[in-house]
Sequence to fold (232 residues):
Amino acid sequence: MPDVRIVLVGPKYEGNVGAVARSMANFDMSDLYLVNPCEIGEDAYRRAKHGNFILDGAKRAGSLKEAIEGCFLVVGTSGITTKGNKNYVRVPITAKEFSERMNGYEEKIAVLFGPEDTGLFQEELALCDVLVTIPSSSIYPVLNLSHAATIVMYELFGSDIPKPIPADEKEKEQIFEFFDLLLDAIDYPEHRKDGTSVMFRRMIGRSVPTRWEYNTLLGVFGDATKLIEKKK
Fold:
């Protein structure tokens, strides 16, 4: 997982700050910066639960520039975006796209979240290298601060989960060949064979099985074909 600093700019409700700290603990993050925050008291600690240590270690900054110092990549978040390229400051990528791009990234990243009522201002977004948004309803696109932060952290955390090795082209063609042999072995109607083979290919293509899953299916089809042929 990337080395992430969460920066809350001007948070107005201590409960949200506590909830963000709790989520940071859930996703193995601990570097929290607060820029001109509200008072952090009992409600924040109550909402943080086992993330209280993150509140204890949170650093306060008097300016955004101070909070992002030492970070190689600065990421802004916003529920207000633009569909065109004219307002280039607010042309975003989704949280999921961002996490995929950050997989294996080794430099320090600052992820910024603005105040609950206004979000990040244009001049704050201008300090960012990339803008991230969370797809949501056009009628009510703005998420609660802690909810938005949790989704972004979840995506970043999940991007580091090892992915199984997919089958290669040779293995894919082999399973289609075995499937056709199985159809022959059970005397599948000739006029339905092509359509069924195409259906199976499309089904496998949608499911994207792993190499291990392909090899398991190959074994099942191969054993079934041999057994049927012996009984004929």
